[in-house]
Amino acid sequence: MDVLTEGTAEYLKVDPDGFREWVRDHKSRALVSKLVSEQEAVERLVADGDYFVFDCAEAMRGPMSLIREIIRQRKKDLWIAGKFTFFIPSMLVAAGCVSKADMGFFLGWGSVINKAVQEGTLKVYEYGNTVMTMRLKAGAMGLPYMPMRILGGTDTFRYSAGKIIDDPFTGEPMVAMPALNPDVAVIHVHQADVYGNARVFGTGIAHVESALASRKVIISTEEIIETEEFRRDPGRTSIPYYAVDAVVHAPFGAYPGECAGYYASDPGAIIEMGAADKLDAWDAYLEKWVYGVASQDEMMEELVGMTKLRGLIQRATIKEGYRA
Question: Which of 156, 200, 213, 314 is most solvent-facing, going by the fewest CB within 10 Å?
Fold first, then answer.
């Protein structure tokens, strides 16, 4: 198979057999409780230098309580997968947590990102939302790469780690993108049991692929439910327990975004994030929403309050299909 041309980006080492070995040695099938605090989960499972993927964004079911805890613990030198996101990458870069970013799309390419790239403290590699998702899918499937018919011939391809190869079946040029097996994934879900079985209702992006492709997986959940509920209706299980390393009970863990069917987003709080990016005011934002509070619970109590939360719940009236 001939390589016709290739992009210039650095990429996480592709090692499907090494990943399989990790899963075999570290992912127990025993039913043991994985319920921990957000502080313990991040301290134990997110290491400086990890490749880090999060699913969804600050507007919809993003793992925001865990993102804030990663910043609060001042994790360093992370390499992030930014797909279908807005301001989370800027927030992490402003906090000094990130040194490399594989970007599909993010809205917040503001001064903090520009400054970090210009000063050499951040390297950005270009992809697309679909490409990043398909790289995770390849990692979850145990493949070394994913063939696809997009991105070739673009400047984005040039700054990616893709290759254009001769397809062995048709003889036509085909884009091949390296599989992605992150060190750690953080995912917010609607329901989970203490063992890590999890349900996601409504729209999703790549929560299954992220969980099955990653070495370490932290899920935060709106509700802890009994395992018997999963056994009654196993077809609604989105993520199986054996893929998960830690479960964090985090009501309103997606705030300021929505969690479909549970509560709506808080537009004012999301706009506040956008303003922090636009006005280069992340330091004040992080002091208020992250460093100035000790936990998710304290933030919700002191900065949000039950009056606002009741309003968000009322706005998320269930029309059909989201809850049992």
Answer: 314
